[in-house]
Amino acid sequence: MKELSLNILDIAQNSVTARSTLIRIDLEETNETLRITVSDNGCGMSKEMVENVTSPFTTSRTTRKVGLGIPLFMMAAEQTGGNLTITSKSEKDYPDDHGTVTSALFYKNHLDFTPLGDIINTIVTLIQGMGEIDLIFTHKSDTLDVLLDTREIRETLGGDIPLSVPDVLVWITEFLKEKYNIS
Amino acid sequence: MKSLAELSAIRDKMKDKVSLREGSNETRIVVGMATCGIAAGARPVLNAFVEAVAKEGLSDTVTVLQTGCIGICQYEPVVEVYKAGEEKVTYVHMSEDKVQKVIEQHIKGGKPVAEYTMK
Q: Is the ipTM of this structure higher than 0.95?
């Protein structure tokens, strides 16, 4: 992947597949580090699945027996000296409090750090494809304090208009650009 | 400042349109957005379709959707076009600059772009 934001898009699709109703994407930056955390309230994974999920030969898809989403994300983190952790509570064991948290730490000054890339485009793409699911996105650093909560947007739009309407996506793009001070 | 008032305006504008519900549209453009598709460049392709459909005013009849891996990762980015009553057309190795031609010739003109399909 050429951008970490593409990894984020890919990892967040797992939360969509896990039938989540709310996904959180949190980016926290210091001078040296970037932490990317994707959390959801989806069906979660069994202990066994969590243990094996970083292997390329573990996948939930049915078209073939390899899954590269998490291994690629982990590689991107580890090649900077960082790491990736996954914790999960399965719906079966935790009926009232289930979901998965995937968190990756990157060292930004490392030669092999992949740039974050077009995060706005990624968030908008995700919203375009996630139907009824809600998203909370935050990006915090010394100079940034970005917060997007699609539940607020939905409330203003009323129940009948999906977030995937082009006009709404344009609004979200402009909103995020403003938060990032891009004109 | 982007305000929620602008969203209210969008809501009022959209209220009268009945075709917002997914699946009620005649044409579906489906972009593969699994790991393989994303890595091959599906995100800009998807966005180009979304923008083109909005710009050409096709939103009433055309829906752009995302899907997972359909099993031909080496041909990604893959885009499938479903038109009511017609056979599915599969475009392979798609890129942003191919999108406009698909919109013009196929989505609007009804003639699939043969050179972008699988050989």
A: no
